[in-house]
Amino acid sequence: MKNLTRFLCLFATAFLPFFALADEISNLTQTVRGRIVDKDSRAPLVGANITVIGSMPLIGASSDIDGEFTLKHVPVGRIALRVSSIGYEDQTIPNIQVTSSKEVYLSIELLESVMQMSELVINANENKAELLNEMALISARSFSVEETKRFAGSFHDPARMVGAFAGVAPSPVGNNDIVVRGNSPKGIQWRLEGIEIPNPNHFSEEGSTGGPINALNSAMLSNSDFFTGAFPAEYGDAFSGVFDMKLRAGNNERREYAVSVGALGVEAALEGPLYKGGRGSYLINYRYSTLALLDEAGLVDFGGIPKYQDLSFKIFMPGKSGSLSLFGLGGLSHIIEEMEDEETGAITEIGDYNAEMGVLGATHTYLFNDRSYLESSVSISENGAGYKEEGLDENGGFHETGDMLLRKYTLSFASSFSHKLSARHKLQTGVRYSKRYYDFFAKFWEHKFQRLETDQDEDGSTSHWQGFVNWKYRFTPTAAMIAGFHSMRSGLNNHTSFEPRLSLNWQIAPGQSVSAGFGVHAKLESLPTYFAIKTLDDGSTVQYNKNLDFMKARHYVVGYRRDFSQNLYLKLEAYYQDLYDIPVENDPNSSFSLLNLNEGYTARELVNEGTGKNYGLELTIERYFAGGYFYMLTGSLFESKYKAMDGIERDAYFNGNYVANVLGGKEFILRQSEKVRSTLGVNMKASLMGGRRGTPIDLEGSMERGYTVWHEDQAFSFKYDDIFYLNLALDYRLDRRKVSHVLKLDVQNVTNNQTVVEKYFDDGEIKPWRQLGLLPNVLYTLEF
User: Fold this and answer.
1) How far apart are CA 491 and CA 435, in angstroms?
2) What percentage of the chain exceeds 90 in pLDDT?
3) How far apart are CA 376 and CA 367, in angstroms?
4) Longest dimension (CA), the chain
5) pLDDT tens-digit profile of 608-631?
């Protein structure tokens, strides 16, 4: 630790002599391009004005008949744009990073003013947290690629980055599982390009939404949205949160490259025009595990090497009446783990784990006129996970103790129609259909009976329908309402859910607004839960859970926002979630509820008789990146309770009671000359959160069964210690003509805290499971 601290200090101070060069004039420039459309109708806006704020001489342009614009000779560094168009509200786009190696392309949406032209007063103040989804007014946050890269400890992973947001508790053991407002990570939904996708994490399994490494590189992302409650009506089959990620389009005028080498992977990216003179583009990124490469080269030799690779791409083809996008994401992961006896060093267990996921999709937008458009998509996805496990027997040999393969294919079609009746009214309606094909098999060794028991043995298909309608009404330029309705039906057991949604936002004074939201949200459990096989003591089997209904929640949210300046704001949100129809074990003495699972399935007999509640208060104070620095403070105080069939109200497993984060960063210009520009960024994140709830382990029962058995009559009766971690990131960027170099050191848990976050039974004793220790990641990127 002393050597690491010295290195970090030397790394930061080595560049201090260069700070005096910050006032030199730079001749490094780049092109900034983009497209401007009506936010409600997606129609291109002709004649919109775009200017670089503070540029001397003024750099500006106007959009053409297709809404396209080009700004040439923009100085390398960070800029802000002002966009205006007659009859529309002005928009300011801050903190755009312009580099010498890559052109910048922006997709800009302007909102039509509801005031008559004679009354129009343009106000340049802008909410930089404005969402891409215009049907969201509360419990949502937009995030950018730049934020994903900047937040210390994010490892360029959007799932890790949102752990800094209010209401979100990240996993203390290193996975990017996301606990939103005390709910299980199983309630999260991932979307890509508007299409629901499987869990996009390496080393994940069916029924989980997290994993240690995201398969989607943040360099592929455009600005995206993250929802924490009271979602708009277009989002269904989600219980606690939604990631709605968008892929950026590649450069359609010139070819650009990027190569990265880091501790987590070696990757390459390529983008450019589909053909010369056309408006279409392609973007592709591939990554391979660094440790796997070193292992294959014979440079490392230890057990449990994680091997993974992923590929993502987008092909974008715009046209006069719409656009067509083809996209894909795929990931493969594999690891062989060997468990050793702590005293003798002998191998006692061998596990071979594989996982894969992939999605291939096409989205099409058709513009009927300047007020109506149709968005349609079709996709095919696959996700699967399996393992083979062997354990040491009494004779010193190995025997099979587990064999699992859970695989699912999904064909999906979705279409939505949007029509802007006027500047005040917008209607949106859509339908989504999915056909899911599954093949599940699993068996494990039951120590008590000394036999293999089958948990899963099912293949077939089922359908899933969803439909929604949204109505947006703007009473005035400062007040809006969104009312909607979502419904879905499962072909698995013909259950139907009806879900009203409503949200309001009102600017009560300049720089101050209040908001409120309500929504009913339902979710289908992961399919293996419905097909789980229970083996009785006499060896016979039964499937209990095929008729389970959706689990449901009513979300109530109120909020207040205060903008102190263009770059600084405060936001408060209070929420209450009423959880009902929760699957719990059908036993009047049982404390088991699916609300406390973070992945996987259970073979217990379940009924929809459980309840729960989450309530809390969230605070965000954020200064957007401007003037070379940013900071953000977030805090959450919350309670998460549940009731199972025993009727006792208990703390839920995820009830940590509080989460607090302090983030900040500063960018120093080290050198700025005619041919070179270099910067040093220093970022940190400190987090303190309450420990999760624990249940005492039944040691005698665990030894009899061969796995962890809990005293369930004392479920979650105590709390583990609070968890603290400090992340630090240093990144050095060097821009030369048409080439950029970026060197980054990102360290998680700098203080190497080793708090016990859980306990488990293994090899005849109770062992601690500690938080993820110090984890440094060095990454070098070359862009040209």
Assistant:
1) 9
2) 69
3) 12
4) 91
5) 999 999 999 999 999 998 889 999
